[in-house]
Design brief:
The protein has about 375 residues and is α/β, with parallel strands linked by helices. The chain has helices at about 15-20, 45-55, 85-95, 120-150, 155-170, 180-190, 205-210, 215-230, 240-245, 250-260, 265-275, 300-310, 310-315, 325-330, 335-340, and strands at about 1-5, 40-45, 60, 65-70, 95-105, 200-205, 230-235, 280-285, 290-295, 315-325, 345, 355-360. Strands 2-4-1-5-6-7 form a 6-stranded mixed beta sheet, with helices on both faces. It has a 3-stranded mixed beta sheet with strand order 3-9-8.
Length: about 375
């Protein structure tokens, strides 16, 4: 999973990136501090994998990973090359989803590129740049389809969909809010659109507002926008996350409890990211290695096996499966087998989140 962090300059994006990844990206009070995108790889916390590693006294422990990309601040006109322009739009295109960091805190010490804090305006600024970039792509698609129509009438449906989508974007609405039919969703796959990417809004609030989030008007503005388009919004305080990232595990847990939080911002972003992209994890376990593997929800056993190695998918015979909760409750694999909780599944089995699997294959 690759999440691109976007936002206007000086919204706290690089501060939050540093806190989530400990990658040490430069953070300063001036626009375009980030020029080349910073990349941070983080391990996905998974208590199930922790338990399995202890249970098997494993030699190798490999959690799933998540990639954050800190993309430089966009400004008005980016789609026309303003600021650092299309280079940043290309960085966004490579990501699976967007974390849109929106400034909701007031500060005389940190300059806002527009001179004032206005979450609605800032969100519209970013959305419009993505929309403008998408309109250029769709106009080229429409031209190609109209030329192809002269020799093949099947392109009419493509033209109708593209024209309707262009009208939707022209109204200032992102592609992710367009009501695609199943057929249209399949058609548009060949033209990935920036404004169609799933979004998590990270509303960056002050420490004071974070403790009384319902009373923060700027956060409520972001929430209403996210609710209207079916996106996710997370209240987050980059400054608090920066402090948390400096602590060891014991102090970190104590700090979170004092703040009334169960998990850090990283944990919340990962949870929402997995949900947004329809991802789950299955587990492989043994003395040699315990590992989490990320797959799309709905993936069948042979394709899940292929995540480990192509030979596993090509020569798939069966999968021996036990739900993690059942294994933990039984205390051992033998006990789980005696209770009939270890199942032999074939090619049509749809892998579930938390399945502990041993694949049998022959090539």
């Amino acid at each position: 999973m690759k999440l691109g962090m976007v936002g206007l300059p000086n919204v706290g994006k690089s501060t939050l990136f540093n806190a989530l990844t400990n990658a040490g990206a430069e953070s300063a009070n001036y626009p375009f501090c980030t020029i080349e995108p910073n990349v941070g790889i983080v391990s996905v916390p998974d208590e199930r994998l922790d338990w399995l590693a202890k249970f098997y006294d494993t030699l190798s422990f490999k959690p799933a990973t998540l990639e954050f990309v800190d993309i430089a601040g966009l400004v008005k006109g980016a789609s026309k090359g303003e600021g650092l322009g299309n280079k940043f739009l290309a960085n966004i295109r490579e990501c699976d989803a967007i974390i849109h960091v929106v400034r909701c805190f007031e500060s005389d010490d940190i300059i806002h590129v527009e001179g004032s804090v206005d979450p609605k305006r800032d969100i519209e600024t970013i959305d419009l740049e993505l929309i403008f970039a998408d309109l250029e792509v769709l106009e080229r698609r429409l031209d190609r389809a109209k030329k192809a129509l002269k020799g093949d009438k099947k392109y009419q449906s493509d033209i109708d969909m593209t024209e309707a989508l262009i009208a939707h974007l022209t109204d200032g609405k992102p592609a992710r809010s367009y009501p695609f039919t199943e057929e249209e969703a399949e058609m548009i796959k060949s033209t990935p659109l920036l404004s169609q990417k799933p979004v998590i809004y990270a509303a960056n609030v002050s420490e004071e507002d974070f403790s009384d989030i319902d009373g923060c008007k700027n956060y409520q503005t972001v929430k209403s926008i996210a609710d209207a388009e079916g996106s996710v919004v997370l209240p987050i305080c980059a400054q608090i996350e920066a402090e948390i990232s400096e602590l060891d595990d014991a102090d970190k847990q104590m700090f979170l409890e004092e703040m009334g939080l169960k998990v850090s911002g990283l944990g919340r972003v990962i949870k929402e990211g997995y949900s947004l992209l329809g991802l789950i994890s299955f587990l492989t376990a043994g003395h040699d290695e315990c590992r989490a593997w990320t797959i799309k929800r709905g993936t069948k056993a042979p394709q899940a096996a292929g995540k480990i190695h192509t030979d596993f998918e090509r020569g798939f015979i069966r999968a021996e499966v036990v739900a993690f909760d059942d294994l933990k409750a039984c205390g051992s694999m033998n006990a789980a087998k005696e209770k009939g909780l270890v199942r032999s599944e074939g090619k049509d089995y749809v892998v579930a989140d938390g399945d502990v699997i041993l694949f049998r294959f022959n090539v």
